[in-house]
User: Fold this.
Amino acid sequence: MDVAVIGGGAAGFFSAIHVKYNHPDASVVIIEKSNKFLSKVKVSGGGRCNVTNVEHRISELVKAYPRGGKQLKKLFPTFSTPDTMKWFEERGVSLVVQDDNCVFPESQNSQSVINCFLSEVNRLGITIQTGIKVKGIEPIEDGKIRLTMDEEVAVFDKIIVATGGSPKRTGLSWLEQVGHEIVEPVPSLFTFNMPEEKVKDLMGVVVEKTITKIPGTKLKSDGPLLITHWGMSGPSILKLSAFGARILSENKYKFKVQVNWVNELNDSVVFDEVQRLVKEYSLKHLSSIRPYYLPERLWRFLLDRVGLNPDKKWNELGKKGINKIVTILTNDLYDVNGKTTFKEEFVTCGGVSWESINTKTMESKVVPNLFFAGEVLDVDGITGGYNFQAAWTTAFVAAKFNVA
Assistant:
């Protein structure tokens, strides 16, 4: 049996390896269009590779997927986060769980994951071909599939498509041409650009607990927020961008973001806290006492933003001053104009529609013996190891095909 896996990324390698586990006599080749493979694995998680998330409750796990969660709910019982951790550890990749439930190699180096994959591929006799672009597929007699590439045509018994997310619909045209429904791809997981906002001067400041919203929508997120030299990033913002991918694209990435710096939804609770500070630190300067232990640079910036002198004493605030502080802490608005997507780590919303896939087997409904795995599908997760977990799970299932 000849099997081709198209795509030399996470899902591609994982599916190729499992095809050989399930069908040891099969001839398996990984076909990658670029001259390097596992490039996203290499750079993900800041070069550390967040392989999965420790969350094992499937009902909670699926909440991390703006798209594809419903389908993954059916697939996760077959191969979920504990299976991923066991798989890597059994193959010599020791793992550590961070406080935020993200799982990384103990080495804190993505090369550990890459070496693990290469070791398995070599051991199993899987061939890797790079610099080869697939241009088309065509079902032919006896259930075989003809693959048209740059310089040649080849015939395979089974094909797994694991090409990753395509930033443009044209990148999926070869799959659309044979009848697969395509959901228009748009970026997901991006940072917010704020060219006109002075908050950029606080580059490097991190606030561990925030709530962020897009006014006029139901979009809401929480978690750490990082201020960058172009605007805002961090899990709270990235999560917002993932769940809002389509809406924000339709708005051409021009919108407002509301930041609650103190992670407290109830304004009256914040009001009471500020009043407590007024009483307890009445003769102290505003700059010397930071509500909710906000970073000093941010607190001074917020005071300036509402026109309060940092040398003013707390007992000089008055009700108007207290209200200004409560408002800026819970309802701080910024203009966003544009996004930044890291090219090597980009995640797309959209891809091959689940309507074209048998979710029990990951087989195409329109081309028999053609299977799908990973981000080429209309599936994407927030940060935290979820996108890799979707890749492992769909690849595991796609590689389980039966031979008639």
Notes: Residues 2-187+342-398 form a domain with the FAD/NAD(P)-binding domain fold (CATH 3.50.50.60). The chain has 13 helices and 22 strands. The radius of gyration is 25 Å. Residues 17 and 121 are 6 Å apart (CA to CA).
